Amino acid sequence: MSVATTTARDTVRIATGKSRERSTGSLVFLGLLWFSLFFGVMVLVVLIADTAIAGAGRFDPALVTRYDSTLFPERTGFRAGILGSLWLMLFTALMAVPLGIAAAVYLEEFADSRRWYNRIIEVNLQNLAAVPSIVYGLLAVAVMALIGIERKGIVLGGAIALALLILPVIIITTREAVRAVPEEIRQGSLALGATTWQTTWRQVLPSAVPGIATGTILGLSRAIGEAAPLLMLGLASSVRFDPEGLMSPITALPIQIYGLSSNSQEAFQDAASAAIIVLLVMILGMNALAIFIRNKFQRSW
Amino acid sequence: MKRTSNRWAIASCTAVLALTLAACGGGDAGADAGDGGSGASGTVAVDGSSTVEPMSKAASELLSEENPDVRVTVGAAGTGGGFEVFCQGQTDISDASRPIEEDEVAACEEGGVEYTELQVATDALTVAVHPDLAVDCLTTEQLVELFGPQSKVTNWSELDPSFPDQEISLFIPGTDSGTYDYMAADVVADESEELRKDVESSEDDNVLVQGISGTEGAVGFFGYTYYEENQDSLKALAIDDGNGCVEPSAETAQAGEYTPLSRPLFIYVSNASYADNPATQEYVDFYVENLETIAEAAKFIPLSEDLYAETQSALEGLSS
Predict the structure, then answer these.
(1) Alpha carbon B248 to chain centroid, angstroms
(2) How many structural domains does chain B have?
(3) Are A156 and B28 in contact (CB under 8 A)?
(4) CA distances (Å), origin A113, targets A106, A110, B170
(5) B111, pLDDT greater than 80
(6) What percent of chain B has pLDDT over 70?
(7) How far apart are CA B303 and CA B297, in angstroms?
(8) Which of B68, B74, B297 is closest, CB to CB, to A238?
(9) Which of B262, B281, B306 corresponds to the end of one domain?
(10) Structural domain spans, chain A
(11) Are residues B258 and B288 both part of a single domain?
(12) Which of B193, B142, B196 is nearest to B170 (CA)?
């Protein structure tokens, strides 16, 4: 038996983790891997459990149906924040999804990547995805000033900030989804006499729907947890009415949580913990929807 | 072809949803614009001091029970941050835990915002000790020496030779409380805006009271109204800010004698908004009318009759 085969066999055994003759080094390494996994998961579990226990006393209807209350801390609710966040998500999606998909389709199907301006757009997109969220808040403040809207803390401003925030994510995931559509589909369509536009609209985009939907929802579930850019836009911490239009002043769930968690009264801190769980449930719900859409509409070629 | 039809179902549903929402948005924006003239309804934007925030929120909460059409948003950007947007005309009312400063007056002039200052309550801290401790009065310097972040004082006799030879235990509100902020930022006024760390700290004022009343040589502080409720088990220290020792009481706090542990709290109302926006007018009128209830709900000292009369006459000046 040559040296090479022995080594190869050992490697296979170690890699599958089933070898009985493991060296100390590999055991230590395996231990480290387990520890890393354990550490990451445990921190998360402990955090969520701790929050859930702190908020356990507040999982009642008042938590989601009532407005915030200064006079009765044990009955304070997050109705305005939950509705505000939902409205923000809707208008964020309305702004970001068409723009994002159009930009991605242009870059994938129409743009000539040898042109300098297209390359600049690509580099910018990659960088934008890594910009801290508060910068998008500043950007949205500038946009609002530019279009001449002076009112602070309204749906429109928040939605612009969050739409800018998730636009790069949507563009990048949509491009991946469009790229995953086999070239043969396009060539077949073109060979039958369809134009590039017809091919894109009738063949490529429908096939890419699962990927686009998944990316969009994951982007939105990032946006729903953001507080920093919304604080920049002056969203109030206390609102006692439901949002009812683009120009309606609102608050958002993360902002209410932020405000209450630093309150010295224990009843408010417990309410904040319960609201964190509500926010987590909302995010998990959105992620579940993304997985559902991906599984239901995925096609294999 | 089933899959294809599913995809189109999704696409068309999304489109319908989008259109419905757009229609909703448009209709409501129209309704919003019509709000201005229809009596007491509309939107009031309040921002500013996080100390005054509970009062403004309580006022909004009480008013919403009587008139839900007046829609109030309350923010807590801090006194300075509040004035910044107020002077640009972006808010109707600015909460403040200090009088407006010169550069802010200039900013408001530049922004063309005329305002009226209304005092709404008095905020006061009380430094309390164990009832048997033979200390009655501290100077402001001694307060800083006792609570400051660099403090190494562990025995009362180190603070002043005439004080008893007794070890000090400190009981301090949690760092999230407004009381802590007030002591750290405005009284001790160290750059770090922190107090010393070798202390018992609790967000629960009851724990502080029990700690102080049960430990010899203990000292701590909390809001004046809380001391008032527990004065049987505690001894409050008088404070000497250069003009002799002043006992903490609602009167000395309101008269501005109990410094630096008391301060007036204000709301600044935009004159233009009060005149043009019936919602602002209703909110401010309601606020002043129910000032005592609101101040007590937020655990501040309500205004004395004289001060209340001053606030009322300022409000009348605003109306005319």
Answers:
(1) 19
(2) 2
(3) no
(4) 11, 9, 68
(5) yes
(6) 88
(7) 13
(8) B74
(9) B262
(10) 3-58, 64-297
(11) no
(12) B196
Distance from C-alpha of B103 to C-alpha of B44, rounded to nearest angstrom: 25
CATH topology (fold) of A64-297: MetI-like fold (1.10.3720)
Q: Against a cut of 0.80, is the pTM above it?
A: no
In 3D, which of A77, A43, A88 has the Cα closest to residue A223?
A88
Q: Do A153 and B73 touch (CB under 8 A)?
A: yes
Same domain, B130 and B243: yes
Contact criterion met (CB < 8 Å) for A209 and B62: no
Verify whether the Cβ–Cβ distance B28 to A248 is below 8 Å: yes
**Are B176 and A251 within 8 A, CB to CB?**
no
Domain that holds residue B153: 123-262
User: Residue A286 pLDDT more than 50?
Assistant: yes
- Nearest-Cα residue of chain B relative to residue A91: B21
CATH at B86: 3.40.190.10
- Considering the domain architecture, whether residues B128 and B255 belong to the same structural domain is answered as yes
Flag whether pLDDT at B29 surpasses 60. Answer: no
Does residue A186 carry a pLDDT above 90?
Answer: yes
In this predicted structure, which of A261-270, B76-85, B300-309 has the lowest mean pLDDT?
Answer: A261-270
Contact A234 B75 (CB under 8 A): yes
Query: Are residues B85 and B181 located together in one domain of the fold?
Result: no
Say yes or no: A78 contacts chain B, CB-CB below 8 A. no
The residue behind tokens 């609101």 is: B294
B150 found inside a domain: yes
pLDDT, tens digit (0-9, with 9 covering 90-100), for B246-295: 988 888 888 888 888 888 899 999 999 999 999 999 999 999 999 999 99
B243 and B145 within one domain:
yes
Same domain flag for B54 and B64: yes
Return the ∠ at Cα B284 (arms to B278 and B287), rounded to 5°: 140
**Position B19 in a domain:** no
Is the confidence at residue B30, as pLDDT, over 60? no
- What percent of chain A clears pLDDT 90, i.e. is strictly above it? 56
**Distance (Å, whole) CA B75 – CA B56:** 9
Per CB-CB distance under 8 Å, the chain A contacts of B46 are: 236
Span A54-109, pLDDT tens digits: 999 889 998 999 998 888 888 899 999 999 999 999 999 999 999 999 999 999 99
Same domain, B136 and B232: yes
